[in-house]
Amino acid sequence: MSVPRQDAQRPDLAALDAAIRHNVGKTLLRFNTCGSVDDGKSTLIGRLLYESKALFDDQLAALAADSKRVGTRPGELDFALLLDGLSAEREQGITIDVAYRFFSTERRNFIVADTPGHEQYTRNMVTGASTADLSVILVDARKGVLTQTRRHSFLVWLLGIRHVVLVVNKMDLVDYAQEVFTKIKADCDKLAVEIGLPKMTCIPVSAVKGDNIVQRSAAMPWYEGPTLMGLLDAIEIADRGVQEQPLRMPIQWVNRPNQDFRGFAGTIVAGRLRKGDSVRVLPSGRVSRVARIVTFDGDLAEAVAGQAITITVDDEIDISRGDLIVAASNPAEIADQFEATIVWMNEAPLLRGRSYLMKIGTRTATATVSPLKYKINVNTLEHLAAKTFELNDIGVANLQIDRPIAFDPYEVNRDTGAFILIDRLTNDTVGAGMLHFALRRASNVQWQALDVNKAARSASKGQKARVLWYTGLSGAGKSTIANLVDKRLHSMGRHTYLLDGDNVRHGLNKDLGFTDTDRVENIRRIAEVARLMVDAGLIVSTAFISPFREERQMARALLGDGEFIEIFIDTPLVVAEERDPKGLYKKARRGDLKNFTGIDSPYDAPENPELRIDTTVLTPDDAADTIVAYLHSLGVLDRG
Amino acid sequence: MRLTYLQRLEAESIEIIREVVAETEKPVMLCSVGKDSSVMLHLARKAFYPAAPPFPLMHIDTTWKFQEMYAMRDRMATESGMDLIVHLNPEAIEKGINPFTHGSAVHTQVWKTQGLTQALEKYGFDAAFGGARRDEEKSRAKERVFSFRSAQHRWDPKNQRPELWHLFNTRKHKGESIRVFPLSNWTELDVWHYIYLEKIPIVPLYLSRERPVVERDGTLIMVDDERMPLLPGETPMMKKVRFRTLGCYPLTGAIESNAETLAEVIAEMMMARTSEREGRVIDRDALQSMEQKKQEGYF
């Protein structure tokens, strides 16, 4: 780095200013690295930091001490130790997470996401690659292009990275032989074609010795291409490409400090925006004109993709967080059903039919994944049939969203086509996804606004439509009690219906078994049927084990406020097992019945049911009385 | 138009700050009055201009900061139009915790770590902005931008959410809080360049001047007030020094320097051969000390 010489008496401030101005004019390149254990990835990054003088004396001293103490190469600096940050990793000698590193050259600043290449850590690699402009894939010269190289190449392609560098490391261990490199390069070209990557640049290096990292290797005079640093420094990553696309700006925050100012704050993710431009707000479709582009440093005439700004518009139209501002003449699509690629990132598998929170841009919606089309074997790129997606699975599925959203396909724009899935109960980020295309446009699915509505139907029956959702273990007494309640309500002239195993499992749901996935689907269908019946004005009872809290939550969410009444038939497992009215527990204990709730499949007891019936205290008749009294107290049975 | 790296970093930080305000209930910006705090506050003002940032500034005080830091702190609040909360751990006041009698580890633990968790609970903040950067220290390199803490304020490095694209999952359980680091991807040099470019006010201690110091264990400590006990034979000497990082004055090492202007500081930085944390006495307590402190709830 060139710094004007300092004179203690008279620093040349003008020259210093020029040097600083040069530095602040640098561009940024973000890249990620992928490789398998022992390909020397940490060593390579350590070497880049070392060679770019990103390390300070005390860090070098610490590195020298660490190298002596725990290093794997006696007498030499072990660059890998710079990167293994957490103590547990240091002991295991491997990196297990994503770490970010920084260095710079005369032209550029770099941010490196170091992501490990373990089979089980697809999740970390995808995370690191999601913000990268370029990927560096490592192979060991002794091993060549392996299965994991195919996996890494596929993943970076999937994440939309089109600049890929294949670094053939450890050339020193194959005597810097040209034919080794030529063979690997040929395999690499074949791989690029197979996956669909435009081109991979191959560079032979030795990270340990420093060959072709910054300095051209004297040991490999036959290699005429760029060094790794040379390539990183020079490669053109067109951020102008995204600036030439039609405008996209997700609204993050409505800034309203007083009556006179109403600004819409967000980051432009594609295109450009000028004062006076005509813009459209999605999903509402309303059109207005940009009045001002407001920033702390004064109003701008124009802003481009990558800038975080605040705009005001000419008309008093409704714009809120989650909306997408687009070019009026070139809007994004709007849809509520999509095909997407999903990367599953959680220990608990994706269950078909379960609903997850979906964050896309600044909008959060509810999404249900169904059906799963296939998963991809990332080693062979084969498509496999899939019932669930498990940790580190990558697959293609359809998504249904609870409201129409504006989007672009991921391959057109990362920011308007990428989403994460969040588990509603654990709050974990369980999946990441990339939208392909809409399955149908939302404009085709206008809900019919019916003249005779739920309230009218309920009123004509002298009741309020409700779902009485009974849940509890097999043999707890759900059906018995639900039947008694149903009879009482019927004898009171109320209009009811009881959904239970007999009339549902044998008909509507006879295609479903008892795996977790099927149980989720079973409950989803029951909840949807119950909703239709509530719409018809009925008091519906459902008597199913419904073991998972999330599905009961989903059923509750389908219905209006107060319409869902969860009744927990609380019978301890020992009591239910002793009753065993259908002999199912005996079968399950013998192993003749798989996935039996309470035995080898979990039951999540309700945390806050509307009503809890303790059957060790109440007889079925008492229980029915309690429930009917409760319905009276809520006014459910009030006429008119 | 090609954006420079500073423009990209600035936009990313503004986006993070806005996201927190949009998705959490009661955010606060921690202010240690150092250069990173100054930059973070500047970014927050940009994020919400023409409004003032819609959250307060909070200083977890130890009573042992440099006098010039207190002056700057009050100036920052006034200029930004934000409310300033100053929290002092009452237990630390009562016991008179100080770095001389209790040592740097106890001093930091009680004033800062305990003080911070106390203050977050007292005011019910569910998100706190901090100025930490990933380039500062090894264990920070793997820190997320949104870092979740249990109701007991513990950090679990084994159980962090993946952060993809710019999609931050801000959902939390009752009692959990989030530490948010908008400067995660900035380096020390980036911070200085940005301060220079944007003319952001900083504590004058970052610039070299004649100051009274004593040398202890190879570290130059400034005698900032009369509470500093001098060892036998020790007399403060005037030296031309500046600071790379600022904390409690008895725990912050000065460096000898001729850099009287920001431009000269940056020039020195670009040739610097030691990392900024070397001047911090607390980090040397033990190998892995930062990681341990984080797990206990230190920032």
Your description of this structure?
The complex is a heterodimer of chains A (640) and B (299). By secondary structure, chain A is of the alpha/beta class. Chain A is 29% helix and 28% strand. Chain A has four domains: 15-234, Rossmann fold; 243-327, Beta Barrel (Elongation Factor Tu (Ef-tu), domain 3), CATH 2.40.30.10; 333-444, Translation factors (Elongation Factor Tu (Ef-tu), domain 3, Beta Barrel), CATH 2.40.30; 454-634, P-loop containing nucleotide triphosphate hydrolases (Rossmann fold). Chain A is built from 19 helices and 26 strands. Chain B folds into two domains: 5-191 and 288-296, HUPs (Rossmann fold, 3-Layer(aba) Sandwich); 202-283, no CATH class. In chain B, 36% of the residues lie in helices and 15% in strands. In chain B, helix 1 (5-23) packs across helix 2, helix 2 packs across helix 6 and helix 6 runs antiparallel to helix 7. The radius of gyration of chain B is 19 Å and the shape is globular. Chains A and B meet through helix 1, helix 3, strand 2, strand 3 and helix 6 of A and helix 1, helix 2, helix 6 and helix 7 of B.
How would you summarize the topology of this molecule?
The complex is a heterodimer of chains A (640) and B (299).
Chain A: H1 13-24, E1 27-34, H2 41-51, H3 57-70, H4 80-83, H5 87-92, E2 99-104, E3 108-114, H6 122-129, E4 134-140, H7 147-158, E5 164-169, H8 178-195, E6 200-204, H9 228-234, H10 240-243, E7 248-258, E8 261-267, E9 272-274, E10 278-282, E11 286-294, E12 302-304, E13 308-313, E14 324-327, E15 333-344, E16 355-360, E17 363-376, E18 383-384, E19 394-407, H11 414-417, E20 418-422, E21 429-441, H12 454-460, E22 466-471, H13 478-491, E23 496-500, H14 501-504, H15 516-535, E24 539-543, H16 549-558, E25 564-570, H17 573-579, H18 584-590, E26 611-614, H19 620-634
Parallel strand pairs in A: 1-3, 1-4, 4-5, 5-6, 22-24, 22-25, 23-24, 25-26
Antiparallel strand pairs in A: 2-3, 7-8, 7-14, 8-13, 9-12, 10-11, 10-14, 11-13, 15-19, 15-21, 16-17, 16-20, 17-18, 17-19, 20-21
Chain B: H1 5-23, E1 27-30, H2 35-48, E2 57-60, H3 67-80, E3 84-87, H4 90-95, H5 99-123, E4 127-129, E5 146-149, E6 177-180, H6 188-198, E7 209-216, E8 219-222, E9 237-242, E10 253-256, H7 262-271, H8 289-296
